[in-house]
Amino acid sequence: MSLKNLPKPQKSGLLLIDKPADFSSHDIIAIARRILHTKTIGHSGTLDPMATGLLILLVGREATKRQPEFLKLSKTYQAVLKLGTQTDTWDKYGEVVGQQPVPPISAQALSQAVARLSGSVSQIIPPFSAKKIKGEKMYDLARKGVEMPARFTQVNVAWADVVQTAPDEISFTLTGSCGTYVRALGHMLARELGTVGHLTQLRRTAIGPYHVAHAFDGNLLKGCTQDTLYQQVQPV
């Protein structure tokens, strides 16, 4: 039976998943659709394959019709930034495209750099992103080698627990409004510190009031039964 002919889901609501690395958000959605025998599943914002953490699936029409309000929720991440090496995707899955020395970084210099990237920020959009230019996704254009002018979007950003864990490594927690790319903020922070960088770790811990501590382990998803997964669906 094709997905378009499947019955309506038994239950409508939110399914919180702790996404493992090396899965796209759409991989997780496809697996959940097969297990729950429904195509009516949306999301509250995707994660890059490298990233782990909270992915909220919206199951059933009652939940999916509220997708716009869930997409607007702020999101909180924990990340690690590696300084001195830049990749084309601004994370560890990309190809190395540049290297620069890492200057000595004082606590004051780090604090000032973070302050310049706090509050309302004109964030550069990563070339490898799903944003579209004349109907084409930027990552498709990037893979074709098409030169693209820098594009920016306004986001609101708050940093916490910013720690230099090694001469060339910084860990941090970041909460951003809808449209925030943490790898873009990492890229920008490295520039503020006089070098280049890319993310080596990224984990989403919260979306609005929802926390990853209450999510179902995505590593267990493939072996999950329909009844077990429906037990994880909570009311909107």
Quick take:
By secondary structure, this protein is of the alpha+beta class.
Radius of gyration over C-alpha positions, nearest whole angstrom: 19 Å
Annotated CATH homologous superfamily of the largest domain: Pseudouridine synthase
CATH topology of the largest domain: Pseudouridine synthase
**Low-confidence spans:** none
Explain this structure.
The chain folds into two domains: 3-72 and 210-230, 2-Layer Sandwich (Pseudouridine synthase); 75-207, Pseudouridine synthase, CATH 3.30.2350. Helix content is 22%, strand content 35%. The chain has helices at 25-36, 61-64, 67-71, 107-116, 138-143, 182-192, 226-230, and strands at residues 13-19, 41-43, 52-59, 75-83, 85-87, 96-99, 119-124, 132-133, 136-137, 152-166, 169-176, 197-207, 210-211, 216-217. The strands form three sheets. Strands 1, 2, 3, 4, 7, 10, 11, 12, 13 and 14 form a ten-stranded mixed β-sheet that branches. Strand 12 and strand 13 (210-211) form a beta hairpin.
Write the layout of secondary structure elements.
Blueprint: E1 13-19, H1 25-36, E2 41-43, E3 52-59, H2 61-64, H3 67-71, E4 75-83, E5 85-87, E6 96-99, H4 107-116, E7 119-124, E8 132-133, E9 136-137, H5 138-143, E10 152-166, E11 169-176, H6 182-192, E12 197-207, E13 210-211, E14 216-217, H7 226-230
Parallel strand pairs: 1-14, 3-12
Antiparallel strand pairs: 1-3, 2-3, 4-11, 4-12, 5-6, 7-10, 8-9, 10-11, 12-13
